[in-house]
Amino acid sequence: MPADFDTIVNLAKKRGFVFQSSEIYGGIRSAYDYGPLGAELLRNVKDQWWRSMVQMRDDIVGIDSAVIQAPSVWVASGHLASFSDPLVECRECHNRFRLDKLENLNQCPTCGSKESFTEPREFNLMFRTNMGPIENDDNAVYLRPETAQGIFINFENVRRTARKRIPFGIAQVGKSFRNEITPGQFVFRTREFEQMEMEFFCHPDEADEWFRYWIDERRNWYIDLGMNEENLQFREHEQDELSHYSSGTYDVDYRFPWGWDELEGIANRTDFDLKAHAEYSGEDLTYFDPVTNERFYPYVIEPAAGATRTTFAFLIDAYHEEEVRGEQRAVLKLDARLSPVKVAVLPLSKKDDLVATTNRVADLLRPLWMTEVDITQSIGRRYRRQDEIGTPLAVTIDFDTLDDDQVTIRDRDTMDQDRIPIENLVTYLAERLPN
Ligand code: GAP
After folding, report:
1. If you measure from the C-alpha of residue 268 to the centroid of ligand 1, how many angstroms do you get, rounded to a whole number?
2. Full-prediction pTM beyond 0.70?
């Protein structure tokens, strides 16, 4: 059973994962701020992606390109001409909708009017602004709608300086912006969001093989990080769904509370982008293979995931309500690598000597793991709170600790407890908290 949408949104707000952006001014639609726990969770998702894509491989390197690029980038990439959704307007209330998302073409979902909609027109999703103090068409620039183009335009820079031979990949994590007609479902579809994209350059003859390879790799990444396999599906795009650059795409869908929806697209972008940038820039973006003496445009396999969307999916997937030892609890069974707080240090009471030992233990752990000290309320309530934010391990300092220098460690999922000397604590935790 997928978690209930409202329960997750309430948890996210109540515990400080996500806030409506500009809340004190009534909020701005479709933008969100990540609070202390949400910022950690989002960062951990991005770090795990970076670790698997860049750190653990010698055939992929990372970059961090600018959000604002030369306008020609978007002409060459096809985004200025084709990155649009069909938009219709209700003749009665003048609300606007994506034609392909309207369930009933004879009735407005907002005002219920049966007056017809306007003819569809293509609405470009890129945010447009001006570079410099003068506002005119000559200095119009766009906020990037995908991080991918920053990679294509740096293909030659990276290949040369990182001394890479094909097949190799370039990865990037960062903000993208789309003026979505219908944002919604909390952080699922927003106008400002983060992507995790990797462009893998290979020989055209090997593109199909690498396409299948990356579909498997990406499936393994989600499952290895604890996502329930039953909540994941890989769906091949129909011919008429394909983006303008793609010869084949698989969507990685997650079973959200409202149904299956996209987390990631894995596409064969062929040589579309490098060829287009070579044509528009006049630069030679072919690759010369010194072994075969062949010169060609590499093909590109692209796993393109949403960081904010994936973070939301991990949150939903981890949420459980259960009864344990006669008590009802809500628990986030996040993989420890994703948990915002890794270790909670909890003194049994607020007495000075217990708090002093708590601080000594926390100082020992902080350089190694995200550690939280909580001295308020009853120990039971503090365990419940740590369960609800997904902290895998809690270290309790009790009165015996003052005599024997031992602490009790409670496991979030099993609720089992171990008693160990403080001098063994770092080794004990290191075995249970992988990178
Ligand atoms: N470079 C290819 C590309 O951008 P995409 O399928 O349009 O492909 C990739 O986007 C991923 O970015 C999506 O699967 C989704 O996770 C995320 N994404 C796209 N639009 C989004 C939005 N408005 N809000 C949140 N995430 C979004």
Report:
1. 16
2. yes
